[in-house]
Amino acid sequence: RNRRLRRIMLPCARAVRPAAAAGWACAGPWAFGRGAGQIRCRRIKHNFLKRKLIVKMYNQGARSKFRDVLLPPLVSAQELRILLRIDYKQCLQALGIRFFEGKHYWRDNDGRQFECVARPRVLVPFETAAKVCSMFALEPRLVDVEPHWQKSDFLIATPPVPVVAVLGHINHGKTTFLDTVSGSHSAPGEPGGITQNLRCFTTRVDTGAERGSAFFDRNRITFVDTPGHEVFEIMRGRAAEVADVAVILVSVEKGAEIQTEEVIQQADRFGVPLVFALNKVDLPHTHIDLARAELRRQCQSLFDKGLVSRDFSTAAEAALPMSGLKGTGVREVLRQVHEVLDEQKQVPIRFPESYCLTPGAANTYEHIWRRTVYLVDCHLQPPCVGVVLDVQQHTIRGKLITVVVKAGVVNVGDYFVCGSAFGRVSHLFSSGESLSTVTTVTSGLVAQVSGIRKMPRSKAPGDCAPGDTFMVLQRERAYRVSEYRRRMEMLSEQQASGPPMQFAWEHDAAIVSARSQAQEIDRATRNPEAPMSLSDWQRRREAIEELGDGYGAPVFSKGSVHDFEEEIPTHGELAEREAKEDDYEPILPGWDHHEERPPRRSGSKLSGMQVEDKPEPHLFVEPLETASDEEEEQPQRATGGRRSARRKRQQSEDPLEAEKKEWIYYTERKNWREDAQIDSGRTRLRVDEKLQAQAKAEEEAEQKLEEERQIVNELREKILQLSPRPPETEEQKRERERQKIAERTPAPLPPVGKPVIPIVLKARYIGVFDMLMDELERLSEEYDMRILVVHGGLGDVFLRDVVHAEVEKKYGWCPVYAFQVKCDKHAQEEASRLGIDVQYYELFTDFVDAVEYRCQIVARKRARREEAVSRRKPLMQQMKPPI
């Protein structure tokens, strides 16, 4: 095998020129260059692309008689220059990319501006690349990298298993009902007696009815157990999205409650049929007809208010009584589920849609060889698609993706794409309590997939999140799709201005390509092209102080829990202390009453950066030299102006006298108020003129950009032979103006005086992590504080988490919150040595209460400190030296 590889690689290695001469361009794990009139390549690291196919593609494309060239929606400058056989400088100039002070700058058609240092990271839209290709007598064709599929394209070997989501209010018996159906005992083991994440399993059912239609599996059902607390609204929405039927349980003891209305609205939003069941009929003193009437009235009220598009009052009238604990009426509910599925005539009722922008174009232009690397084999369709329910970090098995298969078959060893993540299925675990290993997962089943690989030439694997589409593809095809998506994510990180980029394959556009706050912090540290300035370091230093005295000194120097919970003396105790001590001087910590302001600390370190001390600036000006009346009456000579007059005055002055002349404060001048007003007016006038000139320049740039956009649109319609776009409406114009105003409005800086509470949070499931983030945001708004997750993520607590907590300990007490995860042995030993508290929680309400108690302590200390400072302020003003 090694001899065969040497025979393949040796001819290319002999013909390779130096990188500067041949112009190597990296595309995936291969580098391509021009030598001896043909495209040659050399291997870099991974064999995720077919070497012979890529070489054949470039060489056949160069000799092709067709003038068509296939381009994706975003084209890399390095691939475009190889297709056009020009060097980098000519390609960048043709694309209109500017180079200034070591960075490349360019714009797209939507007004977004991008900047980057490395040339291989330059991605331009299709319209810009099409204009350059037209200069070389080529006809560009738009072909999307995303695969296109339809429901009829998948081979159905076995009938699909229906997916049923069990929804309802908290403590209405959902988990107990599923335990009765599956024969398990999950409800007694739930922390706090409530469900806190999605639980999926497939079980065999026996409805006792006659055999019906065979377009779905009537012997098995995949159930999705959902939490009922109000904070898990997003989880219930995910379950309703993948479900074929939703069973809504209502307790006859409590009746229809708030979350019952919410789940009805979510099921209507996704078009899921409903089956109502009245649970807990075995309890004494229950009235079934009253609960059914209340549920019917609630459904009718939702329809009358326009909150739902369908009237569910008829289905509520037919609600079946049952007892999840005793098993009474369970078989009737399952039989009703089968009857609803028979009415739908298809399973699954919701099929994942393709993200392809050009359906059918890949098959149409399959014979074209001149194309980019990411469009090789772009006509291949995925044999299996699914939807991601949740992502977790397991202690032993690593990162697991919970996937509901919608069509096709997943086997061990298949390559997959999920979000921007790429990997190979190493293990398939049946989702449930046992986590048994399986080798094949068919349509309608749920499995936990492991095997996400680290992307080549990157520091982290791809990113995936709940709601993403899981696709099984050929190895090279899967890698190209994931690499193209990752390049798009990198392009969003390089964006400097304009509206945020939104990708069709991402389901969390509100975070803007960041799946959590902790990952957004890590993303900023991984980007070497965005160095942090000194002012940014100072803002971060001020932002992570949990509570300060107002002059930069932290309250808790050691940062222990005892210091954090220690109460500040009341004002009565302070008065007694003042009465006992005769020489008591009520001054602030770090204040010298002989100075005007607290002294600056020498050589303060800001995260490894040494900042030199500088004297405080003072407000003083040079005395104005007013001309005499005789000089004002004399006309100005044509040979000299203001510079000549100033130069003559400087030459007439004695150098010694000029050195002796001191600056004069405003307070030492007789007419200092008038001079101050004159100087302020001149400064205001200069600022106004500068702002007017800047606004005029921006308006001219906007007009020029609009003209260029119109030219590009006309060129795009001409090349792609599209119909002209309809004229823009008034509402669209107003929306565009609002977006412009929002872009020009700078983001507000975090307030310095606002208390900040740092959080180091680790969780197991990404859905639970997002829920805890929402709760922290609610607490920050309630207590008017900034609660920041300075470090966190999925998985157990390791040594790096303790190190982050030790850094935050410098500014205040910061424990490590471990929610439903464990702590590594070495991390636990290091935490004990450094005095870092690692707090474990199994119930989310306990975690929220702990953070809320911390907010209450900070608020109480803040209020008492402000009151103490306000009492001492008059005394401090009396002790100030006269000016």
Structure description:
It holds the Pfam family GTP_EFTU. Residues 516-537, 571-657, 720-747 are annotated as: Disordered. This is Tr-type G domain-containing protein. It is built from 27 helices and 34 strands. The chain is of the alpha+beta class. It has 4 domains: 2-142, no CATH class; 161-344, P-loop containing nucleotide triphosphate hydrolases (Rossmann fold), CATH 3.40.50; 361-483, Translation factors (Elongation Factor Tu (Ef-tu), domain 3); 531-594 and 747-883, Rossmann fold (3-Layer(aba) Sandwich), CATH 3.40.50. A hairpin with a 2-residue loop joins strand 2 (30-35) and strand 3. Helix 6 (126-135) crosses helix 22 (672-720) and helix 24 (766-783) runs parallel beside helix 27 (844-879). The termini are far apart. Residues 1-46, 509-558, 568-650 and 652-668 have low confidence and may be disordered.
